[in-house]
Design a protein that fits this description.
Elements: H1 2-6, E1 14-20, E2 27-28, E3 39-47, E4 57-66, E5 69-77, H2 86-92, H3 96-99, H4 105-116, E6 120-123, H5 126-139, E7 149-151, H6 152-159, H7 168-174, H8 185-205, H9 214-218, E8 230-236, H10 239-254, E9 263-264, H11 265-270, E10 275-278, H12 285-292, H13 295-302, H14 313-316, H15 318-321, H16 328-344
Parallel strand pairs: 1-9, 3-6, 6-7
Antiparallel strand pairs: 1-8, 2-7, 3-4, 4-5, 8-10
Helix pairs in contact: 6-8, 12-13, 12-16
Length: 346
């Protein structure tokens, strides 16, 4: 304060905050369909990386479940037409030799599209797998997934909040479900299929009978705890903003603390007067979704913010080591896209 006063500068007080959505969906494309009588396609994808935009599917597998039994299977490799990274090979056990005679991903996706029909789609951490389907189907002119979807990860978090984690292998161990080779699509899909049967049984015991009741019931719980935090920058413009900033910091530490201080998005909106909201760093939702989602989806996300943030490429370099982005050129491309998006949204 003293230095700013001395040099006639205005200091903006602020904080980097952890924001969470008020509830992470268990179900997508909600439909009034009776859970006990429906047909499910439980699927899993193995990919060359974490980005549905920049990476590609190398294995797609699924099981079809009806009346508590697996009635059909789908499995196929897909040729990426480039060598796999060491990280991908070590994680999945899939090698270049296994993919060299595989069909193109476009052919695999067309076959899967026809095979899945109008069944309810199920995946563990469904937003990841559905993201790859949405990008792939859209490129083929098939449009995004319209089938009802269930995320077994979020359903398990809702049903068993006492567990330390809800990874697939943890849940399989808890319920004595065989998981032969984790991170191979067909084995993960089969294990998730058996897990789904158990989860639906426990959900029905709680009175959840229809697909469109899954989100409704889960919102009754402390759903902000299930949401993954993302970073934003909050800057106070004036005295009202500073007061609201103090309120938000207090609420995040006292009322909404869960592992880290959290601010639900709705609470931020209630106390947003006098505050500028920035999109944060690589742990912010704009940068993350620039990698994961289609441009029109990122544009809608960016409209929430007063300003978009970019950092020098060196700041993002750890993402290369994590195999989240391919190289520095990809980082620079993402930065350019964020700048262009900011200019478009003024």
């Amino acid at each position: 304060y003293s230095a700013a006063k001395k040099y006639d500068m205005k200091v903006l007080y602020g904080v980097e905050a952890n924001i969470v959505d008020d509830g992470v969906p268990i179900a997508y494309n909600e439909a009034h369909r009776l859970l006990s009588e429906d047909t499910y396609v439980v699927f899993d994808v193995e990919t060359t990386g974490l980005s549905a935009v920049y990476n590609t599917i190398i294995e797609l597998a699924a099981v079809k479940v009806k009346d508590g039994e697996i009635i059909d299977r789908f499995t196929s490799f897909a040729n990426p037409h480039h060598p796999l990274s060491i990280t991908t090979i070590e994680l999945t056990g899939i090698t270049d030799d296994m993919l060299k005679d595989a069909p193109d991903v476009e052919e695999v996706l067309r076959q899967f599209y026809d095979w899945m029909g109008d069944s309810i789609l199920v995946a563990h951490n469904a937003s990841f797998d559905i993201g790859f389907l949405n990008v792939g189907f859209t490129k083929l002119g098939l449009g995004k997934v319209t089938n009802p979807v269930i995320d077994t990860l979020e359903l398990a978090r809702f049903l068993y909040p006492e567990l330390k984690n809800h990874r697939l292998n943890t849940l399989c161990k808890k319920f004595d479900i065989e998981l032969t080779q984790h991170h191979r699509a067909i084995y993960d899909a089969e294990a998730t299929g058996y897990l789904l049967m158990r989860l639906l049984k426990d959900a029905q015991e709680r009175g959840i009978l229809y697909h469109d009741e899954l989100n409704e019931r889960s919102k009754e719980e402390v759903s902000y705890q299930r949401s993954r935090p993302f970073h934003v920058t909050l800057l106070a413009q004036n005295d009202i903003g500073l007061k609201n900033l103090f309120k938000l910091v207090s609420l995040s530490h006292v009322k909404y603390f869960y592992r880290v201080p959290r601010i639900p998005r709705s609470v931020l909106q209630q106390h947003r007067e006098g505050i500028l909201v920035g999109s944060g760093c690589d742990k912010g939702e704009v940068f993350d979704n620039m990698i994961q989602k289609a441009p029109e989806e990122v544009e809608e996300i960016a409209k929430f913010y007063d300003f978009l943030e970019v950092h020098p490429p060196e700041v993002y370099k750890p993402l290369i080591e994590m195999d989240y982005v391919k190289d520095e050129n990809m980082i620079k491309e993402i930065i350019r896209k964020i700048v262009m998006l900011g200019e478009k949204l003024n």
